[in-house]
Amino acid sequence: MSLVIEDTHGWLLDACSLIDQGYTSCFRRRSELQSEMVGRFKKQYFRILKSYGIQSKNNNNPDNKNLDVSQNVERPPKKRKRKQIELNHGEIDSMAFHEKVRCVILEGTKSLVESATHLGYLQGGLDAVNDIPPCHECNLASLCDMAKELPLVEDENQESSIQFLNNDTDSMSHLDLFSCVTENPAEHAALTMLMGEEYVIPPRAAFLLSDFSRMQPLLQCGRKFDVIVLDPPWENKSVKRSRRYNSLPSSQLKRLPIPNLASPDSLVVTWVTNRPSHLRFVRDELYPHWGVEPVAQWFWVKITTDGHFVFPLDSPHKKPYEVMVLGRYRSDAQTSPSEMCVGDVAPVQDQRLIVSVPSTIHSHKPSLAEVLKPYIKGDAKCLELFARSLQPGWTSWGNEVLRFQHSSYFTLTPASQHA
pTM of the prediction? Predict the structure, then answer.
């Protein structure tokens, strides 16, 4: 049950079940033997039981479904009065944006959580919890840097820019993951050794492991996409301090060849941080530069396994939500997407919520495949840029595109045990 609830406010998702849909049948080949496995993403990564900054006595009360968690923040001990620090322009801007969307977040989340609770879904506090396993150390970005030393193949042949996983061989060491789009053409997932590590590749999934300087294979493969989802590595202080990944200046995003990748009327979705300056940049600069017209703003709301916001809604530091900007690529500059009929798909609704328990893994976003279905045609080709995982039937690009496909993130059991 990956899509738990849908109402006029949006959707409540089981993000872990969304991942599992692609791994009900996985094949691993060793010499002449081929075994079928069932893959499950480790649920321990989605065990967020307590809201940060909330008193435990409030979390342990099953009747406490007051989602205005700003009222439940534990009061700090009184301290000497200090001179009040004036807010800078960015902080004032952020407060104004929060006040504008606060009611949408609070009312929509409350409606979805109450419906899910009635179904018995949000009972995470009653479950046994295992220790969260450590994350696999990812060196893919470093490998991409080293791959820049390899000669770049300037080949316009579309067939040569795509290579396929072959279950008839024991090793995939011959594959060039940096200069070709790699695809699993099978209707089942494949457990494959790549670069000395085992990865789980979903059915019909394609990927290119590269950075900006090596995107040519994606352009040369001859595919145009009806959905393009971007999760850019935005610059912010938290990322700089943690050094989790290399951030990218906003201006560099304009280099992305969206017009060369997008089909007419394609849906473009960009994940944005809660900094209003990033939001304005996407709406007022980035999308117009690509020929994309903004049509909606959505929110991903993060909750605990018993239905509370993961952070206080009115926290001055971290908010329990993130923003997405949705737009339509204009193949005809004189035609506005808001005025034209895009096939038989529904018009994109504004101010929709996607509510889910987030992964404890940094920057592990939920799949948007289910919630975007009403707004795209049935045979849509889908692309994710700056991806860190793969999805069945999607093409993905990024310098860490296989990060969360490492087999250590999955529980793999013989299919015979599920018969």
Answer: 0.87
